Amino acid sequence: MSATGPVTELGALGSVHRAWIDPRGLVGLTGARWVVDWWIGADDRWHVPAVETAVRQRLAADGPVPETVMRVPGGDAVQRAYAVGGAGGLVAIEVENRSPVPFVVAFVLRPALRGDRRGRLARIALDGTVVMTDGRPALVVPRPPSRWVVATTGGEPALEIVRSGRAVAGPFVAARDRGGALEIALLYPLSHRSTLRVGLLPGVGETGEAGRVDLTRVPSAADATRGWAAQLGRGMRVELPDEGVQRGVDAARAALLLAAESSSRPTAAVVAVLEEWGFAPEAAAARERLRWRARRALAHVTTVRPHATGGRWEALRARLDAASPTWAWADGPAPTLRLVRSLLVGDDDAGAVALVPELPPAWLGRDLAVHNAPTRSGRVSYALRWHGPRPTVLWEVSGAPAGVRVRAPGLDAVWASDRATGEVLLEPVVAAPGAS
Questions:
Q1: Residue ranges per domain, the chain?
Q2: Are the C-beta atoms of residues 5 and 76 closer than 8 Å to each other?
Q3: Are residues 64 and 9 in contact, defined by beta-carbon separation less than 8 angstroms?
């Protein structure tokens, strides 16, 4: 099977290794020719996320830690995938049994399928707790499987063998297929309210660490989320009145940091948005890796101007509507972050700091805040609070030069201040006719 829908990139800062996950929980290593799927054997039947209707996916509040939930009798089977990093760039896959009864989880390895191109899986073996694919460490498991199946994609499917109860018990036997069409399923019983973890090994073939991976010491998904929360506590931060936009922004900021450290060279847009969102060290490092054409292009990548003719809110809503449940976009996170910033803060052509360049109609009367936004006049923080139809703006421009000018064109086209710090109660703001 191929990925179903847009994929979410998985990675850890400090590691160039990347993986991806599709909306049904299919996981692949970037560049690998095989993928890892998951099935659940419950009391009633085998449940396959790729074809079940009761499957949903969401992203953790902080960072690329997607959670895929599938309904099973009495509860849910929950899969989480996240990158741990380190020399080998381990990517953990956890399955949690949130049902009142035990079930069986199957981890399935098979050739990847991208469009008309099929991957290859020609040899497979189990060396202790390390699954070897084509002679390289691929997957570390907590223990040998209780049962297993080896099939080929052109023969009887592994799923049919599992469903019919013909999975093999006993030591795993290495297999080979000259056509590269092997498919294996490793079966593990999982008691209720417990979790089983395996680890993908993108880089251990280079480091020789496969046999030393201890899954009990691998950070949990909650640990990964806390680590990302610390990373996202840097740079420009926003507190938005729309939960969907807030989650999209947080996901895009994490994806931007991953894009900056990707093994492929960054684009001029990625470097520009890193600078606009206050990730100065990452921007500087990414700038050094730009190709010469991208360096030239960077000079022409300018911030979305606050005086530009509206439509930015409509453009942002369209992007959010087009995003996957885990806030992934085909063209990456940079366009979304540029649109959000253009709504919240900017520099106008007269050299003034523009707070709330454009107020989305849906945010009328709702509080928001911006922290540490870099501008030409310094780092800007402000809060917008409402007293009925009248907005109050509290602002501070750190490191502002003498004579800094502050405006709020999305709230009041006339008001301006030459103070670096202040508070003002503006005139009532009325929604435009037909605004939504």
A1: 8-225, 233-425
A2: no
A3: yes
